[in-house]
């Protein structure tokens, strides 16, 4: 009768007696045979949503509490994602970065590390201003409402960050202004006339790097026009030699790729760059800095020398080749002589140079004179930086409203004068946006110049107290973001930009590959600068880089136009490719919708379990993406259900071969250790997250293979299952919480669970990362050193039994390798996971130090 009512499925199940959890706590497993009876996985999303409804607030509560109580110290592990721009809409590419950061943060915390994962917004920039023009809305209001929306999206996905300021908060940009003034006072920020790239659509000046190889703007796509304009520059050339060398870069993760890119950009230093001031009384009538590049600075001391400029130079306007265009005082001659500036034919001009030294006579390198010139240049602040002829200083001023105001006052008597520190921040004034929206200017001028109130614009000169006017250009957003990683060990209320004592380089910096060149370069420059001024102890800001490739979606094109998947269905003439996700191609995916439909756990797992971070993530149809995820959840649900049935005595198991019992159990336990280690290694050391998710699958296979034999009754099986659920918690916290509750409801706290470090009275998110119990388990120790090209290479790897490592402190490791201690440059320890010993040079032999150490 039952068979006919419920169909053949029930018949198959009736072969095993139906089992029911004997626990009193109600969980998803309380209903008998809930999961056994399912042969498709379509039920999984509903189960996951139920689980999420039950656990989300509890899990959030726990992690919010952890985050709020955490104190940063000098040994804090520092995980950081690149701050997003508040466009208002989180996209799938973002979720990949933040899920990885969240996983790294929570896994490290479970391992007992003091770890932080700060977050804020890189919130100045053009889109807010464009939106303000179109909608007549205050950029501040637009930006804040977008930030609010994105914060809620981040929360829905289950991330827990240490929230800090955004770059448009006055408490933050007060220190961006401080940083600008430090550069100004050090002679590294200056105004120079230069040929600039004018974007006629966005009506703004662009940096060279923001113009593509076709001469188009990176943002608007407009053909860029060349104009001359006075701009603010930062002398990045001052550190070109050090930035090129990258001596302090520890070559892990993606650094070699990024450094190669940055070196290509800087080019190998091959000469010296000087900055001479053209005085106001000069015939050219321009008060400006003249940059001169020369491989032979000693030519400054040759009486017949002159400065040659190319046709591209701003001074050449309206002049003929051979003509003298001006004179400048030669600061390297005691007689105060002037040196001619002459326009030179292009064919006689060294490539990539606009001004260099020539002489009428043949000269020979003179090292004594060269060092005299360089010393004098250094003492007078005239440069003399060793750099390449093609590398240009950083243009940081923008004729924009929504940016950090440059804290300078222009005075007729004193020139550009820095604002007093006590007057910072110079806050953006309130302006009327209805005027801006109808205002178009073909002039290079900022909206602040045209629309800021008079009492903001007109000020007293801090030096001579006469009438002066404020600088109306603002900083490029690359300047705002060039130092936020230094800010996040301090509080917004702190009266200092950062905490030198506690601050350390970011241990793992996670971001999109496409942002790697510019942002990472400027970040390095600023850190080098602050270290040179004694503000920081280190000069390379990021230890490991994890640059993630973009998420691409399947796109459909018909006759060159994008169409939706639905429109493409059943058509044969459609071109199918994978391209960067975008709304205009019909492929923008809202993570919120995915969370609503499948739960945040399912989205997190799906994002992480396919492809390693640095490879492009090709996002297929939802069916194909989530299919394997549902099988994964189903297999775990099944395992827990059957385990509970065993514990209640409702499921019989097969006996083990009595003669091999010990051996089988030992092997099972070894495999468990191996998997626990590999999951941690993949997340925290190699950052190959996908290898971690495949290892979790292997552990599930091991558990499923033994669920119907007597191993399931052992403490070793209990440990393996507990370890699985704990390791799942940083990936899929709600799901792991439900599994843990059901699992522990059947178990009493016992001696061995304590020895494994589990606490069954607490939720899974409060557990510690599972321990490896085999004291003979072998850990890999890698020895590395730099090769002739400065790249880090592995010299040797050995294996050391766990019992010898014990607490894994640097001192302990130094003790183990006493005989080569003096050759050790640095030791990197990822807790309970990996050790890298960096040696000072390649020629050091690593002797067989102890019998227990074996070659790996
Ligand atoms: Zn003045």
Automatic annotation (TrEMBL):
Recorded superkingdom: Eukaryota
Record key words, sorted: Aminoacyl-tRNA synthetase, ATP-binding, Ligase, Nucleotide-binding, Protein biosynthesis
SUPFAM superfamilies recorded: Anticodon-binding domain of a subclass of class I aminoacyl-tRNA synthetases, Nucleotidylyl transferase
GO cellular-component term (any): mitochondrion
Database matches in Pfam families: Anticodon_1, tRNA-synt_1, tRNA-synt_1g
Limits of the Methionyl/Leucyl tRNA synthetase domain: 78-212
GO biological process terms, semicolon-separated: leucyl-tRNA aminoacylation; mitochondrial translation
Family: Belongs to the class-I aminoacyl-tRNA synthetase family.
Protein name as annotated: leucine--tRNA ligase
Gene source species: Dermatophagoides farinae
């Amino acid at each position: 009768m039952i068979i006919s009512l419920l169909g053949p499925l029930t018949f198959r199940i009736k072969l095993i007696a139906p089992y029911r959890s004997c626990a009193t706590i109600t969980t998803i497993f309380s209903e008998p045979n809930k999961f056994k009876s399912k042969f498709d996985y379509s039920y999984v999303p509903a189960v996951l949503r139920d689980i999420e409804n039950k656990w989300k607030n509890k899990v959030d509560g726990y992690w919010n509490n952890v985050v709020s109580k955490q104190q940063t110290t000098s040994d804090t592990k520092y995980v950081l994602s690149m701050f997003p721009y508040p466009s208002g809409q989180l996209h799938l590419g973002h979720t990949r970065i933040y899920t990885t950061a969240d996983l790294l943060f929570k896994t490290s915390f479970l391992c007992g590390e003091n770890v932080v994962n700060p977050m804020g917004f890189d919130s100045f920039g053009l889109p807010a201003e464009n939106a303000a023009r179109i909608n007549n809305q205050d950029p501040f209001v637009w930006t804040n409402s977008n930030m609010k929306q994105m914060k809620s999206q981040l929360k829905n996905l289950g991330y827990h960050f240490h929230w800090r300021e955004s770059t448009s908060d006055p408490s933050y940009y007060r220190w961006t202004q401080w940083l600008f003034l430090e550069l100004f006072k050090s002679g590294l920020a200056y105004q120079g006339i230069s040929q600039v790239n004018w974007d006629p659509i966005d009506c703004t000046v662009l940096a060279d790097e923001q113009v593509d190889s076709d001469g188009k703007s990176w943002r608007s796509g407009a053909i860029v026009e060349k104009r001359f304009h006075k701009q603010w520059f930062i002398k990045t050339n001052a550190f070109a030699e050090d930035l090129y060398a990258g001596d302090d870069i520890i070559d892990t993760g993606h650094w070699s790729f990024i450094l190669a890119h940055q070196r290509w950009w800087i080019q190998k230093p091959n000469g010296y760059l000087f900055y001479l001031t053209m005085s106001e009384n000069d015939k050219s009538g321009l008060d400006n800095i003249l940059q001169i590049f020369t491989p032979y600075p000693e030519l400054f001391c040759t009486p017949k020398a002159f400065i040659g400029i190319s046709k591209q130079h701003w001074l050449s306007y309206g002049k003929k080749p051979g003509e003298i265009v001006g004179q400048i005082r030669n600061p390297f001659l005691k007689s105060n002589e002037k040196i001619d500036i002459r326009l030179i034919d292009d064919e006689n001009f060294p490539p990539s140079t606009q001004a260099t030294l020539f002489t009428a006579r043949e000269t020979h390198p003179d090292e004594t004179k060269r060092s005299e010139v360089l010393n004098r240049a250094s003492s007078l602040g005239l440069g003399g930086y060793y750099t390449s002829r093609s590398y240009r200083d950083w243009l940081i001023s923008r004729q924009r409203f929504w940016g950090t105001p440059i804290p300078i006052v222009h005075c007729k008597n004193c020139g550009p004068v820095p604002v007093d520190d006590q007057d910072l921040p110079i806050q953006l004034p309130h302006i009327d946006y209805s005027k801006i929206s109808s205002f178009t200017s073909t002039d290079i001028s900022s909206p602040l110049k045209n629309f800021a109130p008079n009492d903001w614009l007109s000020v007293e000169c801090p030096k001579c107290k006469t009438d002066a006017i404020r600088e109306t250009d603002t900083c490029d957003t690359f300047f705002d973001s060039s130092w936020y990683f230094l800010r996040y060990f301090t509080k917004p209320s702190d009266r200092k930009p950062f905490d030198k004592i506690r601050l350390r380089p970011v241990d793992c910096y996670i971001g999109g590959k496409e942002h790697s060149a510019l942002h990472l370069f400027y970040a390095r420059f600023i850190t080098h600068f602050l270290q040179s001024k004694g503000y920081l102890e280190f000069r390379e800001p990021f230890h490991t880089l994890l640059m993630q490739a973009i998420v691409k979606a399947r796109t459909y094109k018909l006759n060159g136009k994008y169409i939706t998947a639905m429109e493409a269905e059943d058509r044969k003439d459609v071109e199918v490719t994978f391209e960067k996700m975008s709304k205009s191609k019909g492929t923008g995916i809202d993570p919120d919708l995915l969370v609503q439909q499948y739960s945040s756990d399912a989205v997190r797992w799906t994002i992480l379990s396919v492809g390693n971070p640095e490879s492009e993530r090709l996002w297929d149809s939802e069916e194909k993406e989530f299919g394997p995820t549902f099988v994964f959840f189903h297999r775990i649900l099944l395992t827990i259900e059957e385990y509970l049935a065993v514990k209640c005595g409702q499921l019989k198991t097969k006996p083990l071969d009595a003669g091999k019992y010990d051996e089988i159990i030992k092997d099972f336990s070894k495999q468990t250790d191996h998997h626990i280690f590999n999951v941690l290694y993949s997340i925290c050391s190699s950052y190959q997250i996908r290898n971690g998710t495949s290892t979790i699958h292997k552990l599930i296979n091991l558990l499923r293979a033994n669920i119907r034999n007597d191993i399931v009754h052992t403490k070793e099986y209990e440990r393996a299952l507990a370890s699985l659920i704990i390791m799942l918690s940083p990936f899929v916290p709600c799901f792991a919480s439900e599994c843990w509750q059901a699992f522990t409801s059947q178990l009493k706290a016992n001696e061995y669970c304590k020895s494994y470090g589990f606490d069954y009275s607490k939720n899974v998110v409060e557990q510690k990362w599972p321990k490896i119990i085999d004291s003979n388990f072998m850990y890999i120790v890698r020895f590395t050193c730099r090769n002739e090209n400065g790249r880090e290479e592995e010299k040797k790897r050995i294996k050391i039994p766990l019992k010898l490592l014990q607490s894994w402190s640097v001192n302990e490791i130094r003790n183990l390798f006493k005989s080569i201690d003096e050759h050790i440059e640095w030791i990197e320890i990822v807790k309970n996971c990996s050790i890298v010993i960096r040696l000072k040079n390649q020629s050091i032999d690593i002797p067989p130090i102890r019998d227990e150490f074996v070659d790996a």
